[in-house]
Amino acid sequence: xxxxxxxxxxxxxxxxxxxxxxxxxxxxxxxxxxxxxxxxxxxxxxxxxxxxxxxxxxxxxxxxxxxxxxxxxxxxxxxxxxxxxxxxxxxxxxxxxxxxxxxxxxxxxxxxxxxxxxxxxxxxxxxxxxxxxxxxxxxxxxxxxxxxxxxxxxxxxxxxxxxxxxxxxxxxxxxxxxxxxxxxxxxxxxxxxxxxxxxxxxxxxxxxxxxxxxxxxxxxxxxxxxxxxxxxxxxxxxxxxxxxxxxxxxxxxxxxxxxxxxxxxxxxxxxxxxxxxxxxxxxxxxxxxxxxxxxxxxxxxxxxxxxxxxxxxxxxxxxxxxxxxxxxxxxxxxxxxxxxxxxxxxxxxxxxxxxxxxxxxxxxxxxxxxxxxxxxxxxxxxxxxxxxxxxxxxxxxxxxxxxxxxxxxxxxxxxxxxxxxxxxxxxxxxxxxxxxxxxxxxxxxxxxxxxxxxxxxxxxxxxx
Amino acid sequence: xxxxxxxxxxxxxxxxxxxxxxxxxxxxxxxxxxxxxxxxxxxxxxxxxxxxxxxxxxxxxxxxxxxxxxxxxxxxxxxxxxxxxxxxxxxxxxxxxxx
Lengths: 464, 99
Fold this sequence. Notes:
Chain A is α/β, with parallel strands linked by helices. Chain A has helices at about 5-25, 30-50, 60-75, 85-110, 115-145, 155-175, 185-200, 210-230, 235-255, 260-265, 270-275, 290-300, 310-315, 315-330, 350-355, 365-370, 390-395, 445-464; strands spanning about 300-305, 335-340, 365, 380, 415-420, 440. Chain B is mainly alpha-helical. Classes of the chains: A alpha/beta (about 475), B mainly alpha (about 100).
């Protein structure tokens, strides 16, 4: 329980207002950094206010824990930008861990006298929290490639998962009826923890943006439930903001993959991967050398670059910036088309390109860039595959049919940088590669873009 | 009394969820990664519950769990704000074309 003196309550109220302003200022890159400052001030105020709470009898461990948390937090805030997806997953795990531990402590402090409503939200708090802890750790492990990225599926997986969830909820219902059955509590939390692992096992890399958003939402909702248990309005506000944010992102991601939201919610992830690609016959493709690619690019007026996870893997973003600079200097209009699920988390490509110093007004989202593509001379696809697959528009038998894509095939010339003709992560053949206006540029993204840049600058040097 | 608390909390939850939807809907997809790290940092406000648990010392278990919870939440707050600011610093508009 957080019983407040007026002073503490005022710090909480101000913090809640600052948190809302913080997200409001994030709506535009121009004011976004104010948002961070507002959040920081709110956080410091609320923590400082709490330290004045008279029920606190011992400050030693609080101080040690705060310092230790800060010591762990600083390196976590300074990871490389390419590691942001796994860092984010890890922070979902930490947030949920805090909530689950506090919920557990509250249960043992109150049991066996826990009113039914209190027990219901407490169960919600620790079940959501528990599955988010292990689920997020699994997701972070897969993103960091400590665990195999490949989805692991087995027969009856959905049944096993649903049964586990049902047992956890059953235990929660029993505890609501009879909170004195304290020995059931560890089982409820334990099952939630195992469920989190089982939930992420069938997830492949391409589904990560959706999963991370969903875990974000769960972490927020469990924190809001904790607010109910502690009767803390500030926590309810922060938790519902986080929950709403994760929910909106999950809906965005599932739309961008043409999955229904219920399909995503009930853990039917990774289905796309099971659908084997049809017989891939060897069809002829046209390939080009860096010199040829450079010649086409230098003759263009308008170039759209479509990056994907492959760009991140190859660490090609800085070379891409050089290409952008070179072409822009020659008067070519260069923009970037970012698909919502490109990369491993929402907004992943934007962060990498911004890190490489590409102005954010050149980063267009899918709808805007699709309006531009018919006028584009060249669409350059770097490490993206499924999000450019025209089969999603035309081939009803394709596993990704109906998924919104970036219409690179509408550009006069399409160039695709790719390591080889192996199908992409989802194992789906991409008819884009066989089109008459498509040129395949085989090679490592970073090396290939580097060679194009050398060709372009070398050529201009020769003319000078 | 409990009943009144419950309804107060529900009102706060519903209103905050609506505000959350309206505010976050306006965040450009450009900034979705910083959005996630910022909401994560704000979520670390759960630390206030953990501080009280650890400080009240009502039971050994509560103090231990509360202390661990403070570490987890604080690292999230500190790390989350740092990385969000680092990301936002990188987003720059085009420079005005030089004559």
